[in-house]
Design a protein that fits this description.
Structural class of chain B: mainly alpha
Strand order of the largest sheet of chain A: 1-2
Largest sheet of chain B: 2 strands, antiparallel
Order of helices and strands of chain A: HHEEHHHHHHHHHHHHHHHHHHHH
Number of helices of chain A: 22
Helix content of chain A: over 70%
Oligomer: heterodimer
Largest interface: A-B, 72 and 65 residues
Helix content of chain B: over 70%
Largest sheet of chain A: 2 strands, antiparallel
Number of helices of chain B: 26
Shape of chain A: globular
Strand order of the largest sheet of chain B: 1-2
Number of strands of chain A: 2
Amino acid sequence: MITASLIALPFIAAILLLLLPGNLSKWAALTATIIQAAFTAYVIVIFNINEHNSLLSNAQFIIDQPWISSIGIRFFAAIDGISMLMLILTNFLLPLIVLSTWDRPINNSKLFYFLVLLMQGALVGVFVSLDGFLYYIFWELALIPIYFIVLLWGGENRVKITFKFFIYTLLGSLFMLAAIIWLYLQTGDLHSFGVDAFYNLNLDMVQQRWIFWAFFLAYAIKIPLLPFHSWQPDTYNTAPNAGTMLLSAIMLKMGIYSVMRWLLPIAPGAVMAYADLVIILCIIGIIYASWIAIGQKEIKRLFAWSSIAHVALITAGVFTLSRTGFQGALIQMLSHGVCAVGMFFVAEIILRRRGTYAFDKLGGIREKAPVFASVFLVITFGSAALPLTSGFIGEFLLLNSLYEYNFWYATFAGLTIILGAVYMLRAFKFSMLGAAEEGSVFQDLSFTEKLVFFPIVGLIIFLGVFPQFIFNLTDESVKYLITEINQHLATGL
Amino acid sequence: MEKFAWLIPALPLIGFLFSIFFGKKVSKTVVASVASIFVLIPFILTVAIFIPFISVAEAEAIRIPLLEWINIGKLTVNYSIQLDQLSLMMMLVITGVGFLIHVYSAGYMHDDDGFHRFFAYLNLFIFFMLVLVMGSNFLMLFIGWEGVGLCSYLLIGFWYKNMDYNKAANKAFIMNRIGDLGLLLGIFLIYLRFSSFEYSRIAYEAIDIAIGDPIITTITILLFIGAIGKSAQLPLFTWLPDAMAGPTPVSALIHAATMVTAGVYLIIRTNILFTLAPFTQEIIMFVGLATALFAATIGLKQNDIKKVLAYSTVSQLGYMFFALGLGAYTAAYFHLFTHAFFKALLFLGSGSVIHAMSGEQDLRKMGGLKKALPITHATFLIGTIAIAGLPPLAGFFSKDQILASAFAHHPVLWIMGVLGALMTAFYMFRLYYLAFHGSFRGTHEQEHHLHESPKTMTFPLVILAVMSVIAGFVNVPEVLGGGHWLDNFFTPLLAGTTLILEENVHAHLSHTVEYILMGSSVLAVLAVIFYARIRYKNNGHVPAEDSEPMSFLERLLSKKYYVDELYDSIVSNPVVKGAGLLYNYIEVNFIDRIVNGVGQLVVLSSRTARFMQTGNVGFYIFAMVIGALVILAANTFLH
């Protein structure tokens, strides 16, 4: 019931919002997302981290209803530690994303917030679904609202860019759909799309390789990994900042989450066989994207490229198939989400006040808006992985897992701590520092802007100082994942 | 007392929070007082822990676990404190010198708009520096290590309206990050080898490892890379002279007395590992010696008072690494200890001079300041003598111990070391005579404005001058009738090293040799000082203006061997230019083209795709989902 309610709440709220007058839309959206966040907090409290059962070891609040029984499709969903983390990411960031739009009038705001809530529902659905078909529905459903958000409220060239974004990601997903149907056919008499049935298939190596590529393509495009990333910088750039936050902070994590839920345990042999390839791809991606970020002349594009670099490191950590790698990836997903909302809100405020993202027209903001600059400073160093910020915990664990895998991988991936500092400090310097122009105005943060930023700053530091409660939530699931993979490998691939 | 040890780093952190959140609402006096007291109390606490500690012979380290940090299976790290000989000695310097510099800053920064911000950063720095030395494991060290880097960044770029300063701040942080990657990789390898981050665990297991073990050698090289960045050794030293963009108290505290010595601390802390890696030690020895000499030669031709001191710091740090490479860990610490006092004194003295000169830093515009600044002059002279290495001031004893170790290793090393010492004596007395003697060369307004600094600034100068005189007595060698207290005190710290080498690590020289070495180096230094006196005082020589023609060698030195230009042309510029090329050629013209090409191919060859192209793409998928929902609904009803 709890799981179903978590999915249903945003959808119900979205429909109610359509019935309310347009000037109440943002209040309705805020209320709905706050209720959802509070509900999530309650779920965290009642979530039993020591639970042991047959479904993903500690999946709880299971709902399992027949849906299209003739072909075995079920409404099958539950929350384990990994889903819990993704719910925290989604549901705690959404109120902040809604608030980030507060001071700026939006045309047709009713439709906008409707789409935002629809998006939230779909994301929650992706993160808790344990039926392959249901999961696929939510996966595609998540694409629709964001497509319209970018198309209708985006900037320059939005028609062309959204078209590319849509086709590219849809194309990737079609391979995944084929793989899911194929897997379903393998379940034989069970006629099941259930994750448990898929895990027990014991595919041979040739089958695993096919499955691997079908899933991987979908995820690599979504995350996005080099060389499937070229839709990302333009889409991020043209999207309204709330849309960029949804994309960067939450939606791209669908890909990484899915690797852990749907790819690893189903095709562990192939994952292991291709791990080096993927990790090397990721490392090239880290260096490539960081390097390009250094040369960017606009703050939002710089952030977009930094996002590619960060998620590449997270993915590399996942493919080490180790406990530290998984834990590092999970906490880094959360940390990156928090930082991404912060960064794109920084971009939004700069755009609101100065009307441009271009570095050569910025500068001198710190003098006029010290609170804003201080907040950006914390986000800068959080993103650059300074110890006692959330970014450090993630990067430390991820690099450590890579190190245990291969010394040279960690050395090259480790360049991120140098390059990350280079582009973030450049962004901070060119936008904030220097003397303000004579007579220029830059209003410091408003009350609602502070309401967005202060929780972000708080989370960046809190997660860096006390990350353990996150590890406690996810540890059982991570351990289960490791044993599951090892079991498959032991039973002769 | 130990149970209050956590207060020592906690108080400066509270001070930081106070200044950040309430600093603007209260008066400057309150800000400065709170900030200073929150460093003074930790100093008193440190002393209170230190006194019982020294009264016990070979006292054991005290470890205090505080809080859980990361616990993932076997990967466990906690916030925890270790109090031992090394950390306590470091804490004394950090809180002691730190307190004096807080007091000084109250005067120096008095008219600055960013007063509360300055004290906030200083307190934050003290916090991180204490975490660095008090932690009981490598991750605590890393927190402090990067944290002080953050504070250094914030304070170098303190006057953020000046873009050159911001550039210097970025440079410092990024160069440090290069070293930090080395350190981090070293820490990973330590964890891989020892399954722990705790110093005690590593020291315990290292004793059984054979000398020359390749993993240990790799670990030590990686740790040393970290030390190179933080302690501004060749080739990562260029950030430190630029760091002088920060306010002068910052130069004294962070870029002379404490933060830059973190690399030395790291190597002494892990001395067992370094003793097991003679190959790394050789490298450290050569890098240290090369840095000491290289930076000293640059110091000979600098005309900015702070730049001379900055290169001098690089050079003196080189001496410490030279000692570490020789395995003379105590000598290295001893020099760190005395250097902290006299270099802080010299920097604060230069700050007092700059203050009096209305911001002027060029030695060629000074002269004859002796009369107007009597206290600054007297204390500065003491600092100058101390760094030149004349007995019985602090620098003499610590430098002598390093030189003696060098001689025991090889006489040529001793000669090189003395050469460096002579250059040090020359550029320091050159600076001293140019600034304080002769006639005033600045503008009339500057001359009119000349004044001695307020008491808050001269008080720390006097204390540091006293320390520069007496600090050397903590380790007077036997040959001069001393009890080499520090050597004895550090015995437990170096127990592993002693055990591995099966002998005492201290140099064994006969008394006669020691007398000869000491006497000859002191005489040579005196001769150099005499030469500097004749050249700059009696003959009134003033360095030429930059525009005047110089010989090749002079130009090379005054341009700092063009190292900055070299790094710009082989690193900075290619990175920035390469980013543009990468974007234009690989990204736009290659990857994106392929993607678009594939897309177009699909579009051309598919009816469905052509339908999508009309812009109804969303509804296509929307229809699919609606369809699925209809099936769901139908199913539910049918049941």
